[in-house]
Specification:
Length: about 220
Amino acid sequence: MKLFLDTASIEEIRAIKRWGVLGGVTTNPTLVGRERQDPEHVWKRILDEVDGDVSLETTAVEAEAMVEEGRALAAMGRNAVVKVPMTPAGLEAGRRLTDEGIRINVTLVFSPAQALLAAEIGAYVVSPFLGRIDDVAGDGMHALRQIVEIYRAQGYPTKVLAASLRHPMHVVEAARAGADIATMPYEVFTKLVSHPLTDLGLERFLADWQQLRRELEGEARSS
């Protein structure tokens, strides 16, 4: 399972990229808006910085305008993936874009039925929003497992991207369910590396090492 960062912050992207585990990036209008810069400038910086796929979201609501916007986004970089919403217009636009050879990510998916539609239009990626399903008293992880099972049973090539992940266990369970990609905010990504026993173990190892150095220095002085 590839690990993606859900952000439009170039600083956050560079921080995780240094770890050597960044598989790609997902963005949305809200995240881009937080940067308070020209969106095209933000997208191009991210595309240049990231080696893997970068999802760029359309903002038009009508199919024709969405197709035009999608073409422009796809032309920004070889690693650009165009996000379209799970709406009738999004499906129409998405089908037209895939027919043109443009990779699309169908976003705002909340059910296996919607995921079926995304696969049928030839989506490169489908993005079920697990945390938001949980927010309305649903079971996001169960929906993810169903989508993965359906895609495998039917032989759909569409990749399953687990989105709206709120904590490290969401990431772990998405991996267990068979998701191809998990995307998460910076604060969740940084928590993946953290464990109190790691911190305690490192502290003890360093203390023992310093103690050994002091003992050796004392022996050297006495001799």
